[in-house]
Amino acid sequence: MSSITIAVDAMSGDRGPKVAVAAALDAVRENEALSIILVGNQAELEALLQEGHPRITISEAVDVIRMNERPSHALRHKQNSSMAVALRLVRDGEAQGCVSAGNTGALMAFGRSIIRMYPGIERPAITKLIPSLRGKCHVLDLGANVDASAENLYQFALMGSLMASAVSGLTEPRVALLNVGEEEIKGNEQVRLASHMLAQSDTVNYIGYVEGSDLFRDVADVVVCDGFVGNIALKTGEGVAGLLIELLEQAFSRGVYGRLVGWLARPMLGRLLRLMDPARHNGASFLGLQGVVIKSHGNANERAMLAAIRQAAREVTMEVPRRINDRLDELMI
Amino acid sequence: MSSITIAVDAMSGDRGPKVAVAAALDAVRENEALSIILVGNQAELEALLQEGHPRITISEAVDVIRMNERPSHALRHKQNSSMAVALRLVRDGEAQGCVSAGNTGALMAFGRSIIRMYPGIERPAITKLIPSLRGKCHVLDLGANVDASAENLYQFALMGSLMASAVSGLTEPRVALLNVGEEEIKGNEQVRLASHMLAQSDTVNYIGYVEGSDLFRDVADVVVCDGFVGNIALKTGEGVAGLLIELLEQAFSRGVYGRLVGWLARPMLGRLLRLMDPARHNGASFLGLQGVVIKSHGNANERAMLAAIRQAAREVTMEVPRRINDRLDELMI
């Protein structure tokens, strides 16, 4: 197994560098092929690292991008931020991928300005594997863009299909558009036009429209929507899961009988709780850039940050950007 | 208690008139103030009603609107459909409200053409009370419109606020816009402009942006979005709930031990299962029309259809349209 280096923006998350440093230590300990470059305030990171680790190094960055900072402002004034420095490490080949828990808009703006896009792709999209009853589903865009033209949706479908092939080994991933109904007449103009374009495509195995409830029913391998819709669908789903977990915990903590049955039920609920655990699913891919860029939840804890680093390592190992780029190159000829 | 009459479009649902007739019989039996007019094929309805009920009558309609029929086509060719006839019963005062499990687009088109809109409101919206851990939240639009201008969103917020006052008795309902983040800079143009308009409003208690996960956290009483986003959020939430219920059932049906613990746990899971039961939550309100129009899920079963009829009766009893209309009239002066 060849060695991998991931740059971790240690400063931009809500919980500060402590979480990033702890997750980096966990990650290098569990994966002997992995090295990590922590990007941020040198003194602070050194103090947190204590005796350190031979496969963890520090790359200094003096600035931090705030969560509510305008991406355009960050782009002008924060070229020395931990986020920008981490992305440049990927561009310069010192790392093969990077992870940031910072401002999504700024990560997209810096990502596009620092790392080259795939040929023929206008905008990156954020994508994630959503667990379902059987199998998993790549959903994009989850919030890189607040709107999308039919051409953008078409390109997301193409990238999503290539991603599903590269990550899940599917030869003809089933690609669908998220819509308010399955009938042909439904939906807004962009979605209807994108559907028309996809139906003509030789490259994408387009299966038509799916609805929000289909995301968890293994009817498609890739589901495409604009970033506004995708972000709200994802967070609504997480909200329902959170509500249910809370109700389940309440039910099994009321009285002696409740706690006893809860204890008896614990082993059976393992799969359900794992499937619903947000920390396990942390880490969304910035798809469209010729490099692995993983966005972590802003308020990720150590376990969640570790999941995001693992995902970056996995995409690097599977050479996701190279494989997508090669296929897009062929298609553009 | 004064008597109420609800017109039920018995023909337009996926499961045919059998479900509507059975639900109508249940509804009049449990509510002595309620009369129902079943609208549809007389012979078929009479056969299903058997000996009948003194508070159930039949109003003949020869046509049925298909689920995938274009609303514009239905409007031209299906004036004698069960849906249109049911709406005219409301317009003519023979019923105070109606319920249909048919084509949403057609219901909106006929609703607008048959029943007057509130003063100053351009488009109706579909709204529903979403259960959360504490309290409930009115969400709109859930799919009446596939897009919405800032003015539309503003009007939805106004109607939603008046609805929450009328239905839940809140004096200053907390009204929020659904967005991809809580920061002021987030979101698409329509949402940002609507936020600006709402912030200036004396009538609406606007609290700013909320995210998808906030729908279940009792942070707002009314959440406003366009119909594309709302429909997908609602169905995604239902999808997650369905997935979880299925996993829970799987966990408690595996082996003797699993089934035993499941049986022991059943009483504790009651609240959770009730909260997640789609049939109990069936029935969405068409808000914007001067009359009670309730949209049922297309594939509603008897229990779900009964829930929709109950909701129509509740809104009629609470005089929701008159109360909203009076307030809007005042505001327009």
Automatic annotation (TrEMBL), chains A, B:
InterPro entries: FA_synthesis, Phospholipid_synth_PlsX-like. Belongs to the PlsX family. Its EC number is 2.3.1.274. GO terms for molecular function: phosphate:acyl-[acyl carrier protein] acyltransferase activity. It is an enzyme of class 2 (transferase). Catalyzes the reversible formation of acyl-phosphate (acyl-PO(4)) from acyl-[acyl-carrier-protein] (acyl-ACP). This enzyme utilizes acyl-ACP as fatty acyl donor, but not acyl-CoA. The keyword Glycoprotein does not apply. Gene3D superfamilies: Isopropylmalate Dehydrogenase. It catalyses: a fatty acyl-[ACP] + phosphate = an acyl phosphate + holo-[ACP]. One of its GO terms (biological process) is phospholipid biosynthetic process. Keywords: Acyltransferase, Cytoplasm, Lipid biosynthesis, Lipid metabolism, Phospholipid biosynthesis, Phospholipid metabolism, Transferase. Its main location: cytoplasm. One of its GO terms (cellular component) is cytoplasm. It is found in: Cytoplasm. The gene is plsX. Pathway: Lipid metabolism; phospholipid metabolism. This is Phosphate acyltransferase. Homodimer. Probably interacts with PlsY.
